[in-house]
Amino acid sequence: MEIITTLINGLSIGGIYAMIALGYTMVYGIAKMLNFAHGDIIMVGGYTIYVFMNITGHPLIAVAVAVVFCVLIGVTIEKVAYKPLRGASPLAVLITAIGVSYLLQSLAQIIFGSAPKMVQFPDIKPIQIGSLKIQVYTLITLVASIIVMVLLTLFVKYTNIGRAMLATSEDRSATELMGINVNSVITITFAIGSALAALAGLFYLLKAPNISNTFGSMPGIKAFTAAVIGGIGSIPGAMLGGILLGMVEAISYNIPAIAPYTDAIEFLILIVILLVKPAGILGKRRREKV
Amino acid sequence: MKKIIRIVSFVVSLLLVLTCFAGCGKKSYTADNKEFIIGLSGPLTGAAAIYGIGVKNGATLAVDEINANGGLNGIKFKLEATDDMHDSTKVATNYSSLLEKGMQVSLGCVTSAPCAEWTNLSYDDNLFFITPSASNDDVPKYENGYQMCFADGNQGKAAAEYVSKNFAGETIGVFYKSDDNYSNGIFEQFKANISKDVKLVETVFTSANETSFDSQIQQLKNCKFIFMPIYYTPASLFMTQAKGIIADDAVYYGCDGFDGIDSIEGFDIKSVPQQVSMLSHFDSKATEGVAAEFIKKYTDKFGADTLNQFAASAYDCVYAIYQAMKKANVDDVTISASDLCDILTETFQGGFKFKNAVTGAGDDVSWDKNGYVNKTAIKFIIKDANK
Amino acid sequence: MKIFHFGRKSLSHYYSTFAIIIAAIVFFVLSISIGLEKSTIFLLEKVIIAVILAVSLNLVVGFLGELSLGHAGFMCLGAYLGGKFATIVEPTLGKDSPLNLVLSILIGGAVAAIFGLVIGLPALRLKGDYLAIVTLGFGEIVKSVFQNTTRESFGGALGLETPRFNKDYLFIYCFGALIISLWVSINLINSKHGRAITSIRDNEIAARATGINVTKYKLLAFTVSSFFAGVAGVLYSFSNYNVQSSKFGYNYSIEILVMVVLGGIGSINGSIIAAALITFINTELAQILTGNLAVLQNLFYAIILIVIVIYGNSPALAGIREKYDPSKLFDKKRKDPSTIKKDDAKWNKIPTKIAMDELLSVDVSNSDDNENDTNNTKGGN
Fold first, then answer.
1. Would an 8 Å CB–CB cutoff place B384 in contact with chain C?
2. pTM score, whole prediction
3. Is the ipTM of this complex over 0.90?
4. Beta-carbon separation of B245 and A133 below 8 A
5. Number of domains present in the structure of chain A
């Protein structure tokens, strides 16, 4: 019984990590940059949900608004902060991303104050199967993250835009020569990543309805770790890495002796995997050239 | 030539920058004082602001009252409060700016980790402090430091005694934060003092994940009594997430970190089916005695939102300093922090009994030689179980 | 005797170093003649620690061209182990023993350097953002491990107590450590090893082709950088009497990085000035911008960071940059001709570049992995 609940918890937290990691990995694959501000998009989504839950009281409306708002913010950031740096050194882009992350955090603090805010969702009784008791929200998270991942995989595989994205991540210059507008592919990637971040914000809030301006930092770093473990740039890799990390977290919290070191263990796994398989579990090793 | 001019100009400009903060010359900071200055550093903003504001208000109330009654030998008091946002790295700056404003005696810091810094800094200058709320065992480790609240270790011990007495032979849950000194400090003493008959289910969380407690709740679901030596924010999240999984007749038992849990915006404690209680030194629902008087005065002036045991504790701290200074008959307004500290420590160690305390159960309050407070603890039920 | 090895650079290139030496002498004289205020001494120590951190991080970011996001982790290691060593030997060596201070600084630095080596060895063999990721993870591990230690070993969450050295003299040792770290850094950069390191930054494959042992030089730069981060950590632990590992998170590493970036990546003078100014301004602002206003400071830094990086690096703004180059405003004659035209960014726009890439490429399937690396910021001039 213990094992099943641990498994479900691990999968649901892993699902959230995977959703955030997808944003990191797609942007890395296509724009070749580490978008450090991605975690803060989750925070933006969370606050939007908080505001619209207070106004409308309806979770679905709040989420819909949050998704739209996050997409707008994500695309704006891309246009204003990252696009001018296309072709500049990766270090410069990375530092700008860090600057954007700080900017979003401080703006959130100016608007909402530094004290954490609570979001009130409707109370639903947990589901009971035998001696198993599981929160409904945990199951919703689990199911929704699976649906999102399946949809995203189908989207990338079978739509024109999705294939353009794959092509761009394989070879940007060749894609450009094929007549694909790489700039709009990058914009779409940011839009999808931000929408996923808004959803991740919702699922995080369903787990823990408490939001502050650093709400997205730790999930962001964890998901980023997951993306690297799975192989940054690889979509199935991000899903695998996210779920792996979620399982490790859930299992580790169940063993009292190592529970305090959970974060250390997660980052240690990252380092070990990078040593053994530098490109991550499903990542492709790219050859260098002059 | 140009090169030399460039070198010289840069050197001079850098030196200017460096020397503009070199306020030189050691002098007595308290020489120009017109009133006794009490220093305080606490989180007036940020996640722990509820404590800092409570403490500041409580202390302000006491200072205003003392001044309205003529002060000490005609000399008034003045409270200088600074904001450290519960961040240890801000304390040193606050401390030196307070010292340079003429601080003679202090309430230390409101929270423990910053207060560890304060303990070190104030020891160098021999500045007396009595903290209303920084409960770590090491806070009063030097002779100049005192606590008005119970030390963490003592809270852990008291909780262990309570549990050993009431839950012998049963299984109880513990939920604590392993990388937090407050939580850890209480838990260590709790574990060391608990009787062997009680079986413990230990669960932890860390600062990297303070929000999602599914795994821990699953482990604790069969416990009827859960000891939670943590702050109110994660506690409220735990209670929200545990609804329906942990039995409705279970009891959540916290320490002073629970104070304020019933005034979180957006968290309705009535929606928690279980009993929520804590080990406290102040009855914030008192209807008679000095505590009730304090509650009335406080709510009239600041409203009920920030009223907690630390506000009461701060009120007591100021009065304790006042009574001790009165006993020692201090009448020099320019007395240096160090001289005043010697007088106060001598008084506090010389059988000083603090009377009319708002906190505790109305008894006289005294301090042992380590600076720990001796007063009566109460089990305070914040919210009873839903029937 | 030639103490500072400046290579071909003139002395004026290191004006900040001389300013620091002069400042050290001035403050020393002040402290023994009229005495300094407590807050001044504390601020001085903070500034010195920040400068050591920024200069040492600049070795990795500016001269090696790799990004480290775990500088605070190395600092944390130094702070804890140096501080612990000092606590252990204090009873034997006595209070305020200069030997104890020097030894613990060395030990803190050495431990950080060893970990730098251990972390760098695998991470630096790989090209790309791996060092950033590994150091980020490393920093979090160090923080988490020290936070969960027992009270007796490393103080746990409340932090480790360190010996209380006399504050009137501690800042002089800090100045000493700073001057030594600058001396080592400048000498390293201007030696043949330094030129090897910068050549790796500019073009790793070309550097390897000329026979440079890339991994060795990368490790050298990274280890030296970690060593001084450790030294700064030990000084920090003595300055505060207490180390709390929660301070040394990812955000602190970023703070140091901000100093390096604002000062100019690859400029020692810039790092010194930026670190000193930012620390000074932060301390002053902390007293003015209290409470909810404190966040304005972060907002301000975020905007400055974004604007400076975009202005300084955007290929589209190259023309404007050249027109308003501040160094040209001062003296036109001294401009090094090789850096006047910086047209590598424009090269990306020329269509034939793709064909060139494919011809040169070993693996035809990916063509734009590396093209961005070449126009990295220019070195320490």
1. no
2. 0.83
3. no
4. yes
5. 1
